[in-house]
Amino acid sequence: MVGFYAGSFDPFTNGHLEIVKKASRCFEKVIIGIGYNTEKEIRIDKEKMMEAIKETISIEKLANVEVVLYDGLTTDKALEMNANILIRGLRSGTDYEYEEQISAANEKIANIDTCYFRAGKLGYLSSSIVMDLLKNNKPLDEYVPKPVEKLLKEFYK
Hints:
The chain is of the alpha/beta class. It is built from six helices and five strands.
């Protein structure tokens, strides 16, 4: 089984990493797909974020995880990468309702199902919170992996 974990990851947080770790124990292969969301303003260069995530995956010794960039429909990229299932993280009940709508559409469009993983103790964490902390010169070490923290600090010099 191959799982495809899509997101803008702008930036990639420890919450995202927790989902990847859980998924890597359940799937033969996990692909992190960094998508270009036309509805969101891009804050961090996607290529540089991809490199920071790859470094994080290496540090965490997650040998069955890879990272790709893509645009277009998530389902198209997932199927192109031979993924059997989409991976999503849930922080709250509100997330579940939103994700279920997307999951139903993905199943209809591409006949691909979704597997949810709980964010657990990091359920409160979002990329927006991380960016607010960064802009206000607060410590980030609890919220993002070290390679991402380094990238963010370089980005906001």
